[in-house]
Design a protein that fits this description.
- By secondary structure, this protein is of the alpha+beta class.
- The chain has a single domain, classed as Glutaredoxin (3-Layer(aba) Sandwich), CATH 3.40.30.
- Helices cover 32% and strands 21% of the residues.
- The chain is built from six helices and nine strands.
- It has helices spanning 3-7, 11-22, 82-97, 118-125, 139-148, 190-202; strands at residues 51-54, 59-61, 70-75, 105-110, 133-136, 153-157, 163-167, 171-174, 180-184.
- The strands form two sheets. It has a seven-stranded mixed β-sheet with strand order 2-1-5-4-3-8-9. A two-stranded antiparallel ribbon has the order 6-7.
- Strand 3 (70-75), helix 3 (82-97) and strand 4 (105-110) form a beta-alpha-beta unit.
- Helix 3 packs across helix 6 (190-202).
- GO terms for molecular function: metal ion binding.
């Protein structure tokens, strides 16, 4: 899928692209430097039980994805650049996988449940591949999911009021049987990320 095709999805997408280009999307004019991981535990310790609500209103747990490889990203809809970029790149990677894309589930877990309701997530995700599942919940539910993945996030006040979120920018590639197989680094070549996804699916 070409990026141009994504832009044609509708006026919301065009607005997103314009705001991202100027770095103004969300309540703030900046985004703290994203973290890669909250810590460096053994890969087998990453991942675990969670209970969250999808952008379609379904209550989902880790058990609903049992036996499927996952690509898990923690972010938020008011993110100026990192999150929309990561989701656009995931959209392109899924397109490049062709039919194999149906063998992996991409999850976008909000770290800002105070603002990211299921409806906000649903509106936001219209700009990206429809197979990407948005997840939100109570603050306690989101914190529990982040702890399971050793993902970092923190609310950061901004000048003039409001806040943004500092957060882990890693996409976790999870084995069907549990545990992290690998991770997508936003700084590595697209070909490397695509190869990692293919290897995840091949497992």
């Amino acid at each position: 899928m070409k990026r141009l095709r994504i832009v044609r999805a509708g006026p919301w997408t065009l607005s997103l692209a314009a705001l991202v280009a100027f770095g103004l999307y969300g309540n703030g004019l900046f985004e703290p430097k994203p973290r890669r991981m909250a810590s460096t535990p053994d890969r087998t310790q990453i991942g675990g039980p969670f209970r969250l609500t999808s952008h379609k209103g379904e209550v989902l747990t880790d058990g609903d994805f049992e036996g499927r490889p996952l690509a898990v990203f923690f972010g938020f809809t008011h993110c100026p650049e990192v999150c929309p970029t990561a989701l656009l790149e995931m959209t392109e990677l899924l397109a490049a996988l062709g039919p194999d894309a149906d063998k992996v589930t991409a999850l976008f877990v909000t770290v800002d449940p105070e603002r990211d309701t299921k409806q906000i997530l649903a509106d936001y995700l219209r700009a990206f591949d429809p197979r990407i599942v948005g997840l939100t919940g109570t603050i306690a539910e989101v914190e529990a999911a982040a702890r399971a993945y050793h993902a970092y996030f923190r609310k950061v006040p901004i000048e003039g009021g409001g806040y943004t979120m500092d957060h882990t920018a890693t996409t976790y590639l999870m084995r069907p049987g549990g545990g992290m197989a690998n991770a997508l680094d936003p700084h590595e070549p697209r070909e490397t990320r695509l190869l990692k996804l293919r290897r995840l699916i091949a497992r």
